[in-house]
Amino acid sequence: PIILPHFMNIAQINISKMSSHSEIALNKFVHDNDLSGVAIQESGTWIPTPNLFTEMKIFQNDMSCTPSSLKGVALVLNQNLLPEKIDTLEDQSLDAVWCQIKLKGKRIIIGSVYTAPTSNKTDGLLKLLNHIRAVREYRKKYHFDSIIVYGDFNARNQEI
Questions:
Q1: What is the pLDDT of residues 70-128, one digit of tens each?
Q2: 92: how many CB neighbours lie within 10 A of its CB?
Q3: Spatial distance between the Cα atoms of 153 and 5, rounded to a whole number of angstroms
Q4: What share of the chain is helix, strand, coil (3-state, %, to 5)?
Q5: Which of 67, 145, 66, 58 is nearest to 97 (CA)?
Q6: Using the 8-state DSSP alphabet, how is residue 61 labeled?
């Protein structure tokens, strides 16, 4: 039988494009700190190295990445959380990746999101808030217990 964990430790980092060096350092950090996962922003077009993050599943959304862009998000989650990507929550105009996990018998939606610093920050934040509202509706419709959102919102003193 699968034994679900009773707690989780998840870190969040804006990695400013995942390099092989930063991937190795992040893997060591996850292992040394017994983390259940990492929410990553600005991961770029990361192609995970085989044999790293061996007890983890990696979920990504790098659809908005370009060669000159550092966008992209990822969730690296321990397999014991039984993570599954929720593709229906992806929005091609937003850097976000969403998964469902199980913890203490609860079904939880977990997300990693990134809002780029733009000249019109209010629009980016409004788009993000509207997206989170859609995630809340999904939660209600499919009877999830909670939502956890990690991210880099670039929301310096913004009024909406």
A1: 688 999 999 999 999 999 998 877 889 999 999 988 999 999 999 887 646 667 788 88
A2: 8
A3: 29
A4: 25, 30, 45
A5: 58
A6: E
